[in-house]
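Notes continue from the previous slide.

Worked example: a multi-chain complex. Inputs as given:
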Amino acid sequence: MSAADFRRTLRPTDRFARRQLWLRRFHLDLPLVALILLTAGYGLLILYSALDRDVVALQGQISRLAVALGVMVVVAQIDLAVLQRWAPVIYGLGMVMLVLVLLVGVQAKGAQRWLGVPGLPRFQPSELMKLAVPLMVAAFLADRPLPPTGKTVLQVLAMIAAPALLIALQPDLGTAILVAAAGFAVVLLAGIPWRWVFFAGFAGLAALPGLWMVMRDYQRQRVLTLIDPESDPLGAGWNIIQSKIAIGSGGLFGKGLFEGTQSHLNFLPESHTDFIIAVLAEELGFLGVLGLLTLYFLLLTRGLYIATQGRDGFSRLLAGGLTLTFFTYLFVNVAMVSGLLPVVGVPLPLVSYGGTSALTLLAGFGVLMAVATQPKPLAA
Amino acid sequence: MIMDSDSLKLRNPEQELRQFTGRALTLWVALALAIALLVFRLFQLQVLEHDRHAARSEKNRIEVQPVAPPRGEIYDRKGRLLAGNLPVFSLMVVKERVEDLEATLALLDELIGLTAAEKAAFERRLGQRRRPLEPVTLRLRLDSEAMARLAVNRYRLPGVEIEAGLLRHYPEGPLLAHAVGSVRRLSEADLQHVDPIAYSATRFMGRLGVEAHYERALHGAVGHERVETDARGRITRTLDRMPPRAGANLTLFLDRDLQAAAVAALDGRRGAVVALDPRSGGILALASTPAYDPNEFIWGLEAERFRALQQDRDQPLFNRPVQGQYAPGSTFKPLVALAAVTEGVTDWERSLRDPGYYQLPGQSRKYRDWSWTASHGGGQGVVDLRKAIYRSSNTYFFDLGARLGPEPMASVARAFGLGDNRAVDVHGARRGLVPDSGWKQQTQGAPWYPGDSLNYAIGQGALLVTPLQLATVAATLANRGQPVRPRFLMASDTRLAELAPAPAPPLPAFAAEDYARVIDAMEAVVHRGNQRFGENGTAWAYIGRDLPYRMAGKSGTAQVVEIPQGEEYNEALLEERQRKHAWFMAFAPVEDPKIAVAVLVENGGGGSQVAAPVARAVLDAWLLSGEPSPAQVAQQ
C-alpha cells in the first residue's frame, strides 16, 4: 500500500485521527502526552512561585524537563521484546552499581548515594533501579504462567528485596520503599491470590515492632514526629507543622498565586522540592490541589488503561507496574506533606524541582508509550 | 494435564488477560480510593480546620514588636542640653538565630574589622543574663562604610542585624555626673521590678540622679508595630504602627555655668558644693568631685575599669553632696544660737570670758576652743553670742550646750530639716543623723553625758549632715525661717507632681529679731575685718576684703580623728586623710538672698580658709555674672 493510497483511506475531516496516526508513528500516546504536559505545565507555574519568581532557576527546570521528555520519546521507540531480553542485564548492572555505591560512592548529607564517574555527571544507581526492578520482575513473571506459584513469588521477592536493602543501607529509605513498591506493584498485577497479599500485610504489621528495633534514631524520630509534631515544634516537628499550616491556611480558594506567606517568608521548608504541594495548597487552595490530583488521577487511569491494552503479559505487567509506581510517588509525597506519613524524601512527580526524578518518571512514561503503540504481533 | 509442576503448566493467554484486567480494575479502584483519602485529608486541613491553620499562619507571619519610646531630654535652666539622645546604628547579633557564631564573627571581622576589645565586650555581654532573642551589641556605632558592607553581605549573616537606635548621651560628661545621673543597660534582674510590657522595648533605665528619680516620666510610653517577618525573624515589612509616646523633657534649676564654676573652685579636691535658690529650693548646682564620665557607664564598664573606679581612694563614684554624711562642725552654731536665745539660756547681751577652754563643773577635762595652743593657752577674751558666731567660739557654745542639753538642739536641727530627707526629687538623698538622749540610749546603751551636749553644740559628735542638708539650712536662714525643699525640676512639658511639691513643715516661730541677729553675726563672719588680731570675722581675711555684695556665712571644721587631751591639732603631723573636713555655708545678698550654698572640702582643714573661697567663687559666679537668668527675668 503506497502512502497515497493510505491517505485516501482517511476521511479528510478526521484531523484528529490523522494526528493520532502521526503520533503513533513516533510511538506516542496523545492522551498521555497531553496529560503529562498539562501536569508539568501546572507544576511549572507552582514552581515559579515556589522559586520566588526566579526565572533563571525556572528555565533550568524547563530545560531539564525538555531533556527528560526527549528521553521519554527515545525510550518509547525501544522494542518491548528487546527490553524484555535485556531486563536481566539492566537489573544486574544496577545491582553492581548499587554495591559500588556502598563501596566507593560519593557522600553527601550523611548518605552515600552517588556514583562519581570522571567526566560524567554524578549518577544515582538507585534511580535506575526504580525502573530496573519492575522491568526485571515483569520480565521474570511474564516468562512463567500466571498467576505465579509460591516459588516464583519467593524468587521475585528476593529480586525486589536485594536492591531495596542495598538502597536502604545508603541510607535512603524513601527510595528503597519506592523501589520495593514498584516491584510489588508488578507482583500484585501478576495476580497473586489476595489472601497472600493480606497475609503479607498482617505479617508486616506484626513485624512493625521488629522494624522499630532496626530503625535508626532519626527514622524513629520521624515516626514520633508524625504522631505528635508539636512535641518539638522548632526542631523535628517544624517541617510538618509548617506544611500543615501552609496547606490549611490556603482554605478553599487559596491566598493567591505568589501570595503564600508560609512559602515566601520561608516558614515552609523545601518549598520547591518535596513540599511543593503545600505551596500549591496555600496559594491556590483546595480547588487548586484538587485540579492537580485530578490530572494525576487521569494520568493513572490512562496508564492502567494502556496496561490492559498491552500486547503481551510482559507489556501489561511492566506498564501497570510503572503506573502504580507513579501512584506510589504521588501518594507518599502528598500523604507525607499533609501529615499522614512520616517525612521521607520523595518528590512530587512532574512538579518538584530537580531533574533526576523527572528523568526516571518520563523514561517510565516512555515505556508506557511503547506499550501503548507497539501493536500485538499477529496471532500465530 | 499435570497441575503439580510449574514448568508443565500450560499458559492460557486469554485467561491471563482477563485476570490482569480484573487486577488492574481492582487496583484502579484502590488507587481512586487512596486519592480520595488524600482529597479528604486536604479537605480536612483546608476546609474543616482552615480557621485554625489560617490563624497560625498569621501568627507565624505577624509579630507585634514593641517600639521603644525616645527618652525625655534633660536641660539646664537656660535650655542647655544635659542629657540627650544620639541616633546610632548598632551592629547586633541575635545568638539564637545565628547558625555558626564563630564563622559569623569571622566573617564580620573580615568585613568590618572587629577589634579585640569589641570581641571581648561582646563575649562578656553574651555571657550576661538577657531576654531570649534579645540582640547583643557587637559594635555600638557603625559608620556608613561598615553599614554598606554589612548591607551587601546581609544574606550571608543570618542573625546579624543593624539596629537604628537612640543612645543616651551626656554632652557635659563628668560635670553633672552626680546631679543628672545616668542610665544603664536594663538587666534581667531589673525586669523583675519594672512593668514588663512598658519596658518591653527599652534597653536602658535611669539608675542615678535625676535620670533615676524621673525614670517613669523620662521613659515615656511604649509603642507597638505590627510587622511581617520571615522564618528567620527578619522584618519584611511594617503592617501598622502605634507610635510610642516620647518621655517628658525636663528642665532643671541647675545652671551649667554655675556648676562649672563650682567644680572649678573645688579645683580637683575631694568635696561637694550645693547651691540652692532659697526662694524656690531649686538646686542651682550640685557638684561632687572627683567625678566620672556617665557616658562610659551606659553600656556597662569593663570589669577592670569599674573596679578601678570603685577602688579609687578618691571615690569618684561617691555622690558626696547627697550621700556624704559629715559632722557639720561650727556651721551648726547659728542653729544652736537660735535655740539658746529661744530657750532663754542666753541672750544677745550676755557675755563671758573665754580662757581658751571650757570645763564642766566638777570635771577636770578641758574642752578646748579652736584657738587653744599648748604653749600659750588661748582664749578669745570677752565673748558675746554675736562674737561667738563670727569668731566661732567653742567655749561660748560649750557653755550653751551644757545648759541647753540635747533635746532643744535636736529639735532645732530637725526644724531646719536635718535628720530628714526634705528633698523633692533628689535620688538617694541621705537623712543624716540628729542624735538625742533617747537615740544614744537605744544605739549605744549609754546615757547622755553632759560632754555629749558640749560636742553637740559645736556640731561634733554623732550629728551628721549632708552638704545638701546644710545648703537647705543656709537657704532656710536666708529666708528667715521660711522652709524650703531642695528640688531639681523647674519645668517640664508634662505635668509632674514634683512641679508643685508639698511644702516643707513650717519651723517653730523663732523671733524675727533673732533671725536678724544670727544673720547679722553670720554677715560679720565674712565682712567684719580690719580689726585688731582676734577680732575679725573668721572668713574675712580669705573672702571678705573685696566683696561687692553682702554675704552671710558660717565656717565649720569637722574633726575626723579625736585629738587626745593635751595635744595640739597639728596638721603637719596628721595624714592628709585624717585632716579635718572644711565646711562653709553662705547665702547672698543678705538683704534679698538669691543663692544659698554649702561647701565641703574633705580633709581640707580650716573651713574659712579652704571652703569659704569655694563658696565665694560660686556666689560670685551667680551674682556677678552680669546677665540675669531667664527665671530671674520671669520673676521680675
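Summary box: The first strand of chain B starts at residue 62 and ends at 67. The CA atoms of residues 280 and 399 of chain B lie 36 Å apart.
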